[in-house]
Amino acid sequence: MKDQITRKTQIGSHRGLSTAYPDNTLGGIVAASLVADFVELDVRRTADGEMVLSHDPAFGDVVINDHIWDELRDIDLGSGHHPALFGQVLEALPDTPLDIEIKNFPDQPGFDPVGEFAIEVAGLARPLDVVTSFFWPTMDIVKAALPDIRTGLLVFQGGTVADVVAAALEGGHEVVAPHFGLVIDDLDLITRAQEAGLEVISWTVNDPDIARALMETGIDGLITDHPERMKQEQQ
Hints:
Elements: E1 10-13, H1 26-33, E2 38-45, E3 51-53, E4 58-59, E5 62-63, H2 69-72, H3 86-92, E6 98-102, H4 116-122, E7 130-133, H5 136-145, E8 151-155, H6 161-171, E9 175-178, H7 188-195, E10 199-202, H8 208-216, E11 221-224, H9 227-233
Parallel strand pairs: 1-2, 1-11, 2-6, 6-7, 7-8, 8-9, 9-10, 10-11
Antiparallel strand pairs: 2-3, 4-5
């Protein structure tokens, strides 16, 4: 029943409006801002230190960290859309909350063990934004350097909610972001994380039935490829 929802869940659009635009393109992100409560995007570092949006470490066979921005900016990502810079999003959407995922994995090109690039990105975040990463040490570095920035820890389906909650509390982070598969079979995990003082944002939720079950717990946010559909579930 729709009246069972205890609080309004914020609906986030995954990598922009990825069902209609190439991932992480400016056009897709602007389009997503018109239908979602917040927009999730991914940030990587170019060879000359620019903050480029991309989920993967390469555009096709072009490794982002091996190239300067001028060598990347005109790549066609599909339908005439090109790579975008994080700063372009901030300029285009000054009032849209963003979930800014910093891509920083030890086994991928451009890994930054000291978090210098992550601090630079997070330093541009606004109070309405959250900065997240799957590599938790990066977020610990960011929080230590920028304690006023909202930070969150992402966890893959192979992880555990207990571990991410403990790590978030120890590191002073405000948000935990588990894959929906980690909580759908034990929805009380969401409540327990919230009772510990954490916001819970689950990803990537595209099944309306799963979304409904999560929203009925009062989960703080869902990230989805179908924000319009999920917004309709709240009506």
